[in-house]
Automatic annotation (TrEMBL):
Region entry Disordered, spans: 85-104, 142-161
Keyword Hydrolase: no
Keywords from the UniProt entry: ATP-binding, Kinase, Nucleotide-binding, Serine/threonine-protein kinase, Transferase
Species in which this protein is naturally found: Nocardiopsis sediminis
Record-level Gene Ontology MF annotations: ATP binding
Descriptive protein name: ATP-binding protein
InterPro entries cross-referenced by the UniProt entry: Anti-sigma-factor_SerPK, HATPase_C_sf, HATPase_dom
Pfam families on file: HATPase_c_2
Domain Histidine kinase/HSP90-like ATPase intervals: 14-117
Length: 161
């Protein structure tokens, strides 16, 4: 099986985040067996897409008037890459924040960092990507989405290869 690719554009409004989650979940419905990622990776992808799409709508030009974001999914035999292309931000770059117990924000990229095997910013077009792997894979570099100087995180914590 080669790489399967799926793409969909969403309006840059909060309701589109749920629409994007449902779209991604529908690509690999439960019981589709070998046609997609294992169940845990499917659930994790939907959760992380929600966090990254929320950031696109909340912190980039995608959430502005007539804004939009695009989700691209690349499925290979052992890895799922999800890219959220957004309108970019002239004032900030994605970073993990230290959220207090009562804070309503600041946990999205912490979740991405804890769950994704690899994640980071997209350079051109702007946005974020994350990879989920379910079999040992060999990687050369950070991948297509990351450019020079990009802060790419590889999760190698407990329980990770």
């Amino acid at each position: 099986m080669g790489v399967q690719r799926f793409t969909k554009r969403f309006a840059g409004v909060p309701d589109s985040i749920a629409e994007a989650r449902h779209w991604l979940a529908g690509l690999f419905p439960p019981g589709s067996g070998d046609a997609g990622p294992p169940p845990e990776s499917r659930s994790n992808a939907v959760l992380l897409l929600s966090e990254v799409a929320t950031n696109a709508v909340r912190y980039t030009a995608s959430g502005g008037c007539d804004g939009a974001f695009t989700v691209r999914v690349h499925l290979s035999p052992a890895t799922l890459r999800v890219q959220v292309e957004d309108g970019g931000s002239a004032t900030s770059t994605p970073r993990r924040m230290a959220a207090g117990p009562g804070d309503e924000r600041g946990r999205g990229l912490v979740l991405v960092d804890a769950i994704a095997d690899l994640w980071g910013p997209l350079v051109d077009p702007p946005g974020m990507f994350f990879d989920l792997s379910w079999a040992p894979v060999t990687r050369n570099g950070a991948g297509r989405g990351a450019g020079p100087g990009a802060c790419v995180r590889r999760n190698t914590g407990p329980g990770r290869p």
